[in-house]
Every structure is written in structure tokens, then in C-alpha cells.
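Deliverable D2.4 — example input (C-alpha cells):
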């Protein structure tokens, strides 16, 4: 489904991705763990096609999106959606308008169906009745859920979550984790969840990878991951604060 091959990306003199390889099968919920600044968001932007690599390829359904020009790229990533690390709601649009934005922008379906899909997406994330609120009226957890509604409303087949639970209290974080699982099931999707929240990683993931110094060090089942006899993994697991970051 998703194949990242020998991916390199630098910004000026800073090398971020250094020959990163990763294969994700259809239907997987792939967690990517890694310390802050290791290039997790950069990797997601590459998989979404927002940025081009210096070298290497990203294949989505066997299509090498790293080589595509704008129009072909838009077509190839039509089924890919991302929950951005900062939420990225439009502050001057209501929750309903935010949720409907992509459907209206791309004229995906008639207005009546848009309204039904918006209602359904907001219901799914537990935000029914908030259509007329502004993002500024929402709590942090509600903003994340509104951003989730905006993501699922167009039913993508590949979902990219960048730190979906960071900054939320443990109970709200667990609600978001449950939503990720529910969405995965309902959309029959493939998901990538980038996080340094270990609880979240083990709750939602069926595969866990460690991004370390620009490469994927391990990619195993979660059961195997916890048993990896490597100080880099164990230090990471032992020093991680649930729903937080790294001490
Ligand atoms: N557009 C850019 N221009 C310059 N440097 C960048 C750019 N994007 C990312 N970087 C740098 O690349 C490195 C990796 O950034 P990235 O945002 O991927 O980290 P991350 O692993 O997602 O960290 P966090 O867990 O804190 O979100 C950082 O040093 C960052 O400053
Ligand atoms: Mg990040």
C-alpha cells in the first residue's frame, strides 16, 4: 500500500531523513515513534506529497508520487488525508464550514449530501450540534475532534495522524485513540500514527516503528517491539511519559 524507499531530505545543512525505508501493508495501523525533531512530520509530508525528497521514492498503491507533477499528484493523493500536528482549522470558519471545506472546495457531492456527511462526521467524533461554533470556542480536545471530522468527512483510504493526542488529558487522549480505531474499521483504511505517546502507540498500533536519526530502526508487531533488546528502544520506552513526550 505505502512503500518508502531510501528517502533523503535535508534543509540547508541539516540532514533530516537519511535513507529511510518503510513498508506499510493495506489495513495496517502503523505507529511511528521517535524523539522530537527526528523527522516524523517531515516523513508524513513526504508521504502526503506536500514536499519532494532530495532522493528516494514514496509509492502509494505502486505509484511513485515523488516523481509526479501537480495535477497527477493531486489525483494520486486524493484518497490520502492528514490530521496535522497543529490541528490547522480555519479560525474564521465555523466548525460546520471547516468540516465541509474539502467537499465544497472540490465539489465532491451536492450541497444536501455535504450537509448529511458533515452531520455524520461530527456525530462520529462526538461533536453533534457544534456546526455553528467557531474554532476559538472549542477546547483543545474538541479542536482535535473537529479536525478529525474534517479529515474523515471525505472518507480517505489512507489516514496520516501527526501527534493526535499530544497536549490532551489522558481521558480525552483515550477517546481520540478509540476514534482512530473506529475510523480505521469503518473506512477500512490504512493509517499511520506518528506519536511519542507510548500509551497511544500500544493502544492503536498493530505495527510499531522507531524513527531514529533519519532512518527507521525497527518495525515490528507491538508485542515484539516491547521486547527489543536495544538500549535505544528501551530508553525510549522507559523514559516516555504517558500522553506526553520524552523526559
Ligand atoms: N521546512 C523546513 N525548513 C527547515 N527545517 C525544517 C523544515 N521542516 C522541518 N525542519 C527541521 O527538520 C527537523 C525534523 O522536523 P520534524 O518537524 O519532522 O520533527 P518531528 O520528528 O515531527 O518532531 P516533533 O515530535 O517535535 O513534532 C527539525 O530539526 C526541523 O527544524
Ligand atoms: Mg512533528
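Example output (designed residues):
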Amino acid at each position: 500500500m505505502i512503500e518508502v524507499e531510501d528517502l533523503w531530505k535535508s534543509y540547508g545543512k541539516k540532514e533530516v531523513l537519511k535513507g529511510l525505508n518503510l513498508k506499510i501493508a493495506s489495513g495496517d495501523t502503523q505507529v511511528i515513534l521517535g524523539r522530537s525533531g527526528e523527522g516524523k512530520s517531515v516523513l508524513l509530508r513526504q508521504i502526503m506529497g506536500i514536499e519532494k525528497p532530495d532522493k528516494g521514492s514514496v509509492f502509494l498503491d505502486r505509484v511513485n508520487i515523488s516523481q509526479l507533477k501537480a495535477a497527477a499528484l493531486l489525483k494520486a493523493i486524493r484518497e490520502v488525508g492528514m490530521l496535522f500536528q497543529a490541528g490547522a482549522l480555519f479560525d474564521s470558519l465555523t466548525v460546520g464550514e471547516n468540516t465541509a471545506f474539502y467537499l465544497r472546495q472540490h465539489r465532491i457531492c451536492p450541497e444536501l449530501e455535504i450537509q448529511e456527511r458533515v452531520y455524520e462526521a461530527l456525530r462520529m467524533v462526538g461533536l453533534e450540534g457544534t456546526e455553528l461554533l467557531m474554532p476559538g470556542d472549542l477546547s483543545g480536545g474538541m479542536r482535535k475532534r473537529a479536525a478529525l471530522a474534517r479529515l474523515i468527512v471525505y472518507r480517505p483510504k489512507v489516514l496520516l495522524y501527526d501527534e493526535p493526542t499530544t497536549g490532551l488529558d489522558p481521558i480525552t487522549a483515550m477517546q481520540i485513540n478509540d476514534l482512530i480505531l473506529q475510523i480505521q474499521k469503518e473506512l477500512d483504511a490504512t493509517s499511520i500514527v506518528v506519536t511519542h505517546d507510548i500509551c497511544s502507540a500500544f493502544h492503536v498500533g498493530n505495527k510499531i516503528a522507531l524513527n531514529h536519526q533519519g532512518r527507521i530502526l525497527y518495525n515490528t508487531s507491538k508485542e515484539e517491539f516491547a521486547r527489543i533488546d536495544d538500549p535505544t528502544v528501551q530508553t525510549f520506552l522507559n523514559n516516555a511519559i504517558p500522553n506526553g513526550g520524552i523526559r
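The domain at 28-52+74-239 is CATH 3.40.50.300 (Rossmann fold).
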